[in-house]
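EI: anyone free to look at a 258-residue chain?
SC: sure, send it
EI:
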Amino acid sequence: MTKKITQTAGRTLLGDIAPEFAHFNDDVLFGENWNNQDITLKTRCLVTVVALISSGITDSSLKYHLENARNHGVSKKEIAATITHVAFYAGWPKAWSAFNMAKEIWREDLKQNESLNNYPEELKLHQKCMIFPVGEPNNGFAKYFTGQSYLAPLSTKQVGIYNVTFEPGCRNNWHIHHAKKGGGQILIGVAGIGYYQEEGKEKVTINPGDVINIAPGVKHWHGASTDSWFSHLAVEVTGEESSNEWLEPVTDEEYYSN
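SC: here you go
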């Protein structure tokens, strides 16, 4: 599932002085052209970077589109090979300027990729779509999951916050958060597409930015969609005498049902 590209910079920065230009920028260039599916979004990002470098544009516009390329799966090796190739046709000084910008944008990816060396390539691409780390294989809770999951503790003080990542098709068992007072859990989608379901209700899709409030005592499960890696923040709501009750696995019939 391809996330729709949206842009509001035109109206934000120029809407009061050039509303027509803002319309063309936000609605036509990004709203229509960038969402055209005839070439992949990753390819479109690289084409844009090449066009800007070739035109000698190495200001904030190039920085934005380099970041956009990284966020849509362009690796350090791919951007290096692209800029090197462009240098022979567009000029060496332009390539130097682009490399100076690109090395800063991909610097954090170098650190992340070192920690993900033995992980699937698809997971490395998924990591580029979010600011939170994937973490380590979720071995401590593996018996409560169908498929591979990963866990990254973000906060263990005051309120527990964890980034949980699921491979496609992975989900946790049915479970219930108990508490004498307060308690429950909050899920916040951060990357990919996932599912959430409460017992007796229809399955809900979780997109990045979606928030799911889970009351204590509610039997439920959550995990990735069938064809997408998925990450969500799991926020532990403070409560008295809180506990988590793990139940039976989610069957394929339950998982694949509408």
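EI: Residues 127-256 form a domain with the Jelly Rolls fold (CATH 2.60.120.10).
SC: 👍
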